[in-house]
Structures are given as C-alpha cells and as structure tokens.
Write a structure and sequence with these properties.
Elements (H helix, E strand, L loop, with lengths): L3 E4 L5 H8 L3 H4 L9 H10 L5 E5 L2 E10 L4 E8 L8 H15 L5 E3 L6 H9 L24
Parallel strand pairs: 4-5
Antiparallel strand pairs: 1-2, 2-3, 3-4
Length: about 150
Amino acid sequence: MEYTTRLVTIEDYDEIFALWNSTEQSRRALNPVDDSREGIERYLKRNPGTCFAAVSEGRIVGVILSGHDGRRGIIHHMCVHPACRRMGIAAHLVSLAEEALKKEGIHKVFGLVFIDNDAANAFWEKQGYSLRTNLNYRNKSMNQMIPAGK
C-alpha cells in the first residue's frame, strides 16, 4: 500500500476522529473535552510541527499526535486503521514524531498504553520504548465531563 505523510491540521479533525473510533482501544482513550475539535485545535496550535497523518488514496489511514512541555515529549494518540496495519505505517509515524521532537530539543519521550492492549504494548516495545515499573501514573480530572479513570 502506498501512502504519503504530512502534518496534521485542524481541517483533518473529522477524519481523524472517525479513525480513532474505528477501534475499541483508540475509542476508549478519548474524552469529550480534550479530544473535541476545540481540544485538538488547542493541541495543534501548541504543537504545530509534531503531529503527522499517513494518507492513502486521499484518506487518512494513520495519525500520531505528539507534543512536549519543553522538557519531555509525549505521544498522546497514535492510531492506524485496522485494514492498514502491519505495513510499517505506525513505525514510520513514530519515527517522524521522534525526529520532530528532537528538532525542538526534546531528548526523552513517553506514551501511555492500556495495560491490556497486548498488540500496542508489543509494538511500543519493538520501537524501543521501555516499560516503567518504578512509578505510578496519577491522574486528576478537573472537569466532570472527563472520567478520572480506573
């Protein structure tokens, strides 16, 4: 399958949101505030050069949202359409995001993966992302529309 990559823009939102909803694992990572059009627009304004889409035959088949706080990089969402997996798209998107973060002076990047998502955990391990077992991820929702998590 042939595809090209490019930076994500807010005009891609509807297509990306549909892509995220194409799999249960991606769908359950979404929340109605941060992943709304307005939330993604804020994210893209803050991180204009670190979010990428893979496009094949005019449609987005993969996306990665990555950004940083000036110190650490984070991959917030990465998804490839189920019909387009195992073709190297995800690894290519990760590579693009990592290079973009390096250009912005970022030397360490992390991402969050559901513990029961075996395929994603295996993918990230293969990309060189180690599992941190010496810390707990703590989370506080400051908006009643966003679940606190389990």
